């Protein structure tokens, strides 16, 4: 019985330490999107 209580206490301690550990922050990389199509250029009246 004392062996199971010791194991339960050990798992509880490990869980508490893991829950309190500082979490690593994720890095966010933002990339500017390229234009899908080129805007039309005015070249004259009827070209």
Helix content bin: 40-55%
- Alpha-beta content class: mainly alpha
- Shape descriptor reads rod-shaped
Q: How many strand units?
A: 0
Order of helices and strands: H
Largest sheet: none
From the alpha-carbon coordinates, what is the Rg to the nearest angstrom? 31 Å
* Strand percentage: under 5%
* Rounded mean pLDDT score: 82
Distance between the termini: 93 Å
Number of helices: 1
- Uncertain runs: none
Signal peptide: 1-18
Protein name: Lipoprotein
Keywords: Signal
Structure description:
Keywords: Signal. This is Lipoprotein. The protein has 47 residues and is mainly α. It contains one helix and no strands. The chain is rod-shaped and about 95 Å long. The termini are far apart. The model has no long low-confidence stretch (mean pLDDT 82).
In short:
This protein has 1 helix and no strands. It is mainly alpha-helical. The longest helix has 19 residues, at 2-20.
Topology:
Elements: H1 2-20
List the main descriptive attributes of the protein structure presented here.
47 residues, mainly alpha, single chain, 1 helix, rod-shaped
């Amino acid at each position: 019985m004392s062996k199971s209580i010791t194991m339960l206490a050990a798992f509880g301690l490990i869980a508490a330490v893991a829950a309190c550990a500082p979490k690593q922050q994720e890095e966010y990389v933002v990339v500017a999107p390229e234009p899908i199509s080129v805007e039309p250029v005015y070249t004259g009246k009827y070209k």
